[in-house]
Design a protein that fits this description.
five-stranded antiparallel β-sheet, 429 residues, 3 domains
């Protein structure tokens, strides 16, 4: 970046912080300074402590920092809540201490009054918009970080979910993305325990796609064309009424995944095994997978079918990536006869010290590793790859994070994964 470009960028950030955001971003600066101080103090104290005491002190620092981030997201709302939700199901990125604290944000979004979203409805359907409906509930059924959902009945009697973008969310996102990147750049060199730049970039890229519901509608159409396993439901799209700020789909009655499992813990094994098997099928068979496995994006209906919701983020793999990542994934699970080192190299992993890939491969033959779940193996291999400065394809990291996130649910409910090989059609050897 040239000096002039850097100056322009800094001026834009300054305008966002001082003019557009006003008091909204004062808390960001305070939180950033506080988090930096927490970790700085932890590192200084840890030098004088035993390994066990230092580890305990680091855990306390993670917890204290997570509380600060959670409160900041609550105060700023909108994309900030999404930021917290995004982090809350990323055990591969954040220390475990962060997760239960940030999971409090999963139900924190504040709905907009109907008069605030009415202009978007008129823009999409005209002043006589209610001609399409027998009934339209103006009180939202659910609210997320960028949209809220209303239940309605079409003239033909079909019950639908009407997803409407919250007012000013695009403007706020444009402001917040500048702030996120600015703060991440300041904190990243200081808080070495977390790759803040990577987390921030992934969040911004994912949210940019989600702000245009036409993209989500197309994602849903693509996803619904695949032959999903029994017990997986994909809502039907009502394309005629869907557009940039509104999307209409089939209404599915059901309980949220977390609520369902809390009420019926005995069903956790079946439900979560089916969910993870579905994701492995999406990755290894379809080459297209739902990339936002947030607990709020899953419903369980009266027949115990799992409905997958919210298609703002749908990741695609090329045919070559699908085949190579499938082989590597199965290799990590002990289902492929090829050596992991060969599979890493074949899938595009590179390292200055190429023998590191073979060493990692040998490590996965140890007995204690064999007993680990697929998500734990993926988290462990990512850690080893980073420690050995291996260049990992971005598409593999994204794929691994999805499986690790589902694995996090399984850990929470103490469920072991039981492989369903009938889902796989590729030759994995």
């Amino acid at each position: 970046m040239s000096t002039l470009d850097a100056l322009k960028t800094n001026l834009n950030v300054a305008k966002t912080l001082i003019v557009d955001g006003r008091d909204r971003y004062l808390g960001v600066t305070k939180a950033a300074i506080a988090i930096e101080q927490i970790y700085r103090q932890q590192r200084n104290k840890a030098k004088l402590l035993s390994e066990q005491s230092a580890s305990s002190l680091l855990s306390e620092a993670h917890t204290e920092s997570a509380e600060l981030i959670c409160n900041l997201c609550k105060e700023n709302g909108a994309i900030w809540v999404k930021f917290g939700q995004f982090l809350s199901c990323r055990p591969d990125i954040l220390p475990l201490e962060y997760l239960p604290i940030l999971q409090k944000l999963q139900n924190e979004a504040t709905p907009a009054p109907f008069e605030k979203i009415h202009p978007a409805i008129v823009e999409a359907w005209g002043d006589d918009w209610d001609r399409h409906f027998l009934h339209f509930d103006i009180i939202p059924i659910a609210t997320a970080s960028i949209a809220q959902v209303h239940k309605a009945t079409l003239r033909n009697g079909m019950v639908v979910a009407v997803k409407i973008q919250l007012p000013d969310v695009v403007k706020l996102f444009e402001q917040d993305s500048l702030v996120f990147r600015s703060v991440a750049g300041v904190i990243a060199p200081l808080v070495k325990e977390i790759d803040i730049r990577q987390v921030t970039d992934q969040l911004i890229k994912m949210t940019m796609k989600e702000l245009d519901f036409r993209v989500e509608a197309e994602n849903l159409r693509v996803f619904s064309e695949h032959e999903h396993a029994d017990g997986i439901r994909v809502p039907a799209l009502w394309g005629e009424l869907s557009g940039e700020k509104i999307m209409v789909t089939e209404w599915i009655d059901g309980a949220g995944l977390t609520s369902y499992l809390e009420e019926q813990p005995s069903r956790a094994k079946d439900i979560l095994n089916r969910l993870l098997s579905s994701y492995i099928q999406q990755i290894t068979q379809f080459g297209s997978y739902h990339a936002d496995p947030h607990p709020g994006n899953f419903l369980v209906d009266e027949h115990s079918n799992i409905a997958i919701l919210d298609y703002g983020a749908l990741a695609s793999l090329s045919e070559d990536e699908t085949l190579k990542y499938s082989k590597l994934l199965f290799g990590l699970m002990g289902l492929n006869s090829m050596k992991l080192g060969e599979l890493f190299s074949e899938a595009g992993f590179t390292c200055e010290r190429q023998e590191a890939l073979e060493e990692i491969s040998e490590h996965f033959l140890e007995e204690e590793i064999k007993d680990r779940s697929v998500s734990d193996r993926l988290a462990h291999v990512l850690e080893l790859l980073r420690e050995n400065r291996v260049t990992i394809p971005d598409s593999f990291i994204a794929m691994a994070r999805v499986i690790i996130s589902i694995g996090g649910f399984m850990k929470q409910y103490e469920v072991d994964f039981e492989w369903m090989p009938s889902l796989i059609k590729h030759n994995i050897n």
